[in-house]
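ingest -> validate -> predict -> emit
validate: passed (alphabet ok, no gaps, 291 aa)
predict: started
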Amino acid sequence: MKAILSWLLICGMMVTVGCASHAKKETQKVGGASTASETKKAEPTKTADGQIIQYVDTPTGRWMIHDENRPAPKVITPGTCSTQTEVGTAPSDAIVLFDGKDLSHWTHANGQPAKWTLGDGYMETVKGAGMLQSKESFGSCQLHVEFATPSTVSGSSQGRGNSGVFLMDYEVQVLDSYENKTYPDGQCAALYGRSVPLVNACRKPGEWQSYDIIFHRPIFKGKEVVRKPTFTVIHNGVLVQDHVELTGGTQWNGPHAISDFRPHPDKMPIQLQDHSNPVRFRNIWVRPLAD
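emit:
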């Protein structure tokens, strides 16, 4: 694992995702470290109108799912790279899902051709077009994705540059979290509703950013999960999720609730979310990993 992380950190510095920017705003103390202990679930409650409220016990206390008062991760400035225009190349054994030329590897969940727009080396979400997914299915894998939220800032919290990268049922959140307060378990690089990133390594709106994700799939026996999924996430060359074991799904299930595990196939398409915000993606490749 150390060798893999060292390789990823080096490659993260090589990926041309733009020059670093200086954060202007200090946040609260570091909280919500991405550890197994953080995601320990406390008993849920119900409000008078039947709304489910779930809690997690963390090193910083007990918090509701999607609690804006939960301590946010420290803001840092990611390392500098070369330019915003040059794109790195994929490893020789990678499956390239998007090289900036066409959408031939992508479709919508209903089988319809991809309706997202193509730009100069990138594809961009189209409001209402729906989630895009790879035609090929994957299990455990190493995934590289580059993305850019809109350079013109519009909206706030979850309404600002919102998208997501889904491996099976599990989302790595994409959001403009540069000087944008939201609930920490839903900010950029969060495992949505489950794990707060170790730090906020976001670049400025409009600048290209990168995710390098190592994902090991869950194993189900009937309806029971006998091996939980794990995520390691490198955001702009910075480790933000350190071999986190999920304790359930990441589907939104109300203002303060999140989904549980649900059985699914051993291999599923990689998905990119249309959340009605214009987000761009480029240089997407994947390396299948043995279980």
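The longest strand covers residues 280-288.
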